[in-house]
Every structure is written in structure tokens, then in C-alpha cells.
What does this fold into?
Amino acid sequence: MTGTADTVYRTVDVGFTCGSRPAMVYVGTLTDGGQIPAPNIMGRNDAYQALLLGKNRANPYPNCMLVTLDPGTGRVTSKVIECPISADITYVPATRVRDTVYMFGGHTNADNLYAYSIDLQTWRQVPKSGHWPEPRFCHSSFCLGGKLYIVGGHTVSDFWCYDPETGVWTRLQGMGGRLGRCSTVVVGDVAHMIGDEGKNHMLHRTFSLSQGWHREADLPFETHSCGCVAHTVGVGSEIHILGGYHSRKGVHVYNTMTKQWSLHWRQGGDLPSSFGYSRACLISPDTFLLCGFYEMVVGQLPVGTLVEPSREGESLIEQEAALERRALTSLLTRLNVPNSAIASSPLTDPVLPHVASVLEAQEAEITRLRQTVRDMQTVRDMQTVRDM
It folds into this structure.
């Protein structure tokens, strides 16, 4: 079974490409709950933005850019951010902690820690003091509980926590074993680390403040150095694995509620080109940027994307009902209905599908009106050219 539509990809030129896993992180507006807001509640001064940093193949300078997505037109623009970090920086993650982005290490960056102010759009180097992690690249980083965590790397396996309030690094108990070139994404209060460059490319490890480290079931495919984003689908989330060393044009999807991986390719679901050593991040609730060696791609995630294998004893009607329920909850989430309200609602109530169909019709009408405005602007532009 598949969802209602496939992911739509388009190539964009933002003056930045990188085939060595650049730093990519969402730096736009967040809700009070720390989520990327739906377009219908975006204010005049709000923005969908992502920060990119790495060895730029499109242009040796700059190595840091701010990318903005217009939710109305879908237009993607970029601007240069002055950056003190080496232009040759590669294999480095970046993590947002509240209103600051932190970047530690990276190839050519040794053991330096840099902080980017989202409000000021400026970088600064954090002075070293006390205990400090050793140099690393190809490592993972994530944020939980308002703190920065880094783990592993190409030659190291240790686990550290940085508290921005105190400026102190603390070494923690690791899971054991080296962790390199995996893809990391946080869903709720759990950090997922997927793939590995070591002997087992099928590793899937998680970490939470309440449960610590846990090894999940092995992946049904091999991967490392892939793009990775988490997409909210109502009650639950999907993790999308995009490209990677072993499946450069492939897309795999993981349901964090059922812990099931999609094993089927959808028509048009493959990536438009090869993304071997890639990185990805969301730039809106259902739109991601995917950066590869030769190009930057924008992917538009559909409602109800999960490709879910049938469960034993489940009838086709039950499977279709589950798919409709997931699509409905995803739609309500996109319209900013709280998860608590969705979870407590009787989604089998016949009134909800009716409400959803009305809302979908309204969205379709808004899309039609936007296209009409764009067509009118095109006609005016052509008339202006003729009159010149």
C-alpha cells in the first residue's frame, strides 16, 4: 500500500552544493512547542529558513549560506553569511539549540566549537575551557533537553554533552563501539542514529534522556552518509532516509510508532539523481532540502506518505482504513490541530472525514487562486515588455 501521493522533487540553484556531508539545519520560525509552524499561522515576520555550511563545490566562496523558502510561491532564495570557519570544512553536523546553532569539529576544524546566532546571523568561536572533546569528523550531534550532544566520529567513539547555560562539556557513558557517518534525527524526545560506516551498515541506535542508549532492530538495507528528515504524520512521525552510500537514489521510510520500514519503491519515489554523501533538513513542515555533490533538491512530502507492509490477519478494508486515518491525522496536523486533540478524537466518526474533505477543498481553492495571481502577473509582465 502507498500513500495518496509521491514526494515531488525539484532542483534549485542556491549557489551551494557539497558532496562531503555539509552542515544543514533549520533556523526558521518555531512554535512555542518547538515545531515548524504550518503556513496558515505564519506571521508577517516569520520565515522558513535553513543554514548551510561546508566546502562549496558550486563556488569556492562562500562556505555558509542562509536559504529561505517562500511558502506561498515555493520560491527558494539564498544569501551569504560571513563565516570564520575554514572554507574547506567537510563531514560536520550542525545542531540547533533554541536560538543558537552549534557546530563542533569537522574535517579541518579539529576540536573547535562555533556558535551561530539565529537572530544576529553571526558566527563566533566558543573559547575552550575545562574538559573538552577531542577532534573528530563524520560524527553525530543532536539536541535534547536544551543541551548539545555529540557522539562518535571517524576514529573516536566517545559521547559528550555541552550545556550552553554553563559552557561546560561533560563526558557521558557511550553505547560502545564506534559510530561514524550515520544519519541523525530527533523525533519527540528520542534521537535516532541510522546506518554506520563500520562493519555493520544496518545499525539503528536510539538515545533518550529517560531510557539512555538502545539498539533497535537492524535496518532491512545497508546505508551510511545519507540524508535524513523526520516528517510529522498526525499521531506519530516518519523518518525519511534519502540516498546514502549504498542506495544513492533510494528512499526508505520508517514509522516511529509501528517501527516498520517501507520495503517498496513507489512510482516516482526514487530521487532524481545520485545522493551518495548527502545531508538533508526540513525547511517547512513538509518540505526538505537535500544537498548532494552536484545539486540541491527541494522535496515536497505528501500527506500519508508511509509505505506500510501489510500485517498478518489484517484485511484489505482494515489496511485501507488505517491509511485513511493516517492521511486524516496528517491533514489535521498540517492545519495546526494539536496532537493531543487528534489523539483524543474519535477518528472513525463520519463527521471528521467530511471536515477533512472541506478543508482539502479549501486548500485546493487557495492553490488555484495563487496560480491565477501568478498567471496574471505573467500577462502583465509580457504586456510591459511589448510596451517598451
